[in-house]
Amino acid sequence: MTVAEYNKCVDEYADRLFRFVIKFVKDEDQANDLVQETFTKTWEKVKTIEYTKAKSYLFTAAYHLVLNYFRQKKRLDDLDEVNMNEHAHNEQYSDIKEVLNRALDQLPEIQKTVILLRDYEGYNYSDIGEMTNLSESQVKVYIYRGRMALKEKLGSIKAVI
After folding, report:
1. For the chain, which domains are there?
2. pLDDT digits (tens, 9 = 90+) for 92-117
3. I need a labelling partner for 111 at 20 to 30 A (CA). Which of 23, 94, 119, 150 fits?
4. Which of 145, 89, 86 has its CA nearest to residue 118?
5. Nearest-angstrom CA–CA distance, 5 and 150
6. Nearest to 111 by CA among 145, 156, 135, 77
7. Which of 148, 160, 65, 71 has the alpha carbon at shortest distance from 107?
8. Pairs from 151-155 (Cβ < 8 Å, separation ≥ 24)
9. What's the pLDDT band for 26 if we cut at 50, 70, 90?
10. Which of 19-23, 49-53, 92-96 has the lowest mean pLDDT?
11. Directed axis angle between helix 125-132 and helix 54-79, to 10°?
12. Could you tell me which residue, 113 or 91, shows the higher pLDDT?
């Protein structure tokens, strides 16, 4: 990939990567840091990455950085564990986006990842499989199970509204 192609990737994919990462980390500053680190890692390997595969490489790198972030965070949280549910309230929400995000957060990590890549970012099954090191059939199964879990958690759209 050339420097011009790298710059084009930054322009084209920075916002999409941010939206992908923020769904996981829920912290804008941390999401910006992870996106920046993704582009840094890409720059370090710019000569070995084909421009046609740059999008897939970026999302794969971001996915792995998110996983590493949570591994490190879990170690820190284990040292100082706090039950956040004690501080939550059970009032009814009218913001559908927030309700959907909460339901997504309750899914297992791999289901959440494949659903975000498929439904939010529009990747096909083979690209998602490549990014997550899963077979195409595994990706389909995780998407199906995740969607069924979301359907069960959310019920009908009338219940959400």
Report:
1. 1-82 (1.10.1740), 92-161 (1.10.10.10)
2. 545 677 778 888 888 888 888 888 88
3. 94
4. 145
5. 38
6. 145
7. 148
8. 153/103, 153/106, 154/99, 154/100, 154/103
9. confident
10. 92-96
11. 50
12. 113
Q: Which of 120, 124, 115 has its CA nearest to residue 151?
A: 115
How many angstroms separate the CA atoms of 134 and 110, rounded? 10
Structure tokens at 147: 């969607």
CA distance 71 to 93: 31
DSSP SS3 for 9 = helix
Mean pLDDT of 79-89: 49
